[in-house]
Amino acid sequence: MLVLSRKPGERILIGDNVTVTIVRIGPNNVRLGIDAPRDMNIVREELLADPQDAPSAAQSPQPSVESA
User: Fold this and answer.
1) What pLDDT does residue 49 have?
2) What is the rounded distance in angstroms from the CA atom of residue 68 to the CA atom of residue 51?
């Protein structure tokens, strides 16, 4: 898992066609804007019918990186 620190208005680019923008940071939440192709499915994990369908860290371990 990649862990990044960002400020409102800053962006994270994923691949060539996905942009995540930090819209607002509140005391208990973060509001994100996601620009992605219409054919890409973006779903909040808690809305999935079967949580087993969600990708987990146990299925695909990746090194952790923290950026300040």
Assistant:
1) 77
2) 31
